[in-house]
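REQUEST FORM: STRUCTURE PREDICTION
Request ID: SP-0412
Submitted by: Lab K.M.
Chain count: 1
Length (residues): 154
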Amino acid sequence: PVEVPTEDDRINQDQAAVVRQTASHAILDDLPWDEHPPLIGGFNCLQARDESHVLLDVLLYRIRRAGGGFHFADRENHPLLVVGEYGKGRTAALACDLAPHWVGPLIDWGTQNDPTPSGQGRVTGQAPGVEAVEVGCHYATFVSQLIRWVGNLD
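STATUS: Completed
RESULT:
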């Protein structure tokens, strides 16, 4: 669903890179994108094809100290999750990692200190023969819904 540049397209962030929902979709259902938007640490630059749909983008901010607080200024935005359906097949391009380092704070999205009233906290998973992994409950839901949609398992 995307065009990928031939040159190095990695963008690492040292300031706020906020994930924003841009369309309704089953992958994004029942998650607090507006009430508690997650952050990421970096991503690849993608260009959505005409027949695809951008579901999430990433907004980059320049932050500076202003008086007793901070000033956030929009810099730019880029597609982050792009999906497409082709015949009976489905595909998705997620421009950040699913595991550290680029996923950044997104991997902890939905922890117990999340101000939303979910109260679900963290999720632990473990495959045979490997160490357990602990992630935020919203992140686990997002990844699960992404895989279910792409795999046509819904």
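NOTES: The two ends are 20 Å apart (CA to CA).
Reviewed by: T.R.
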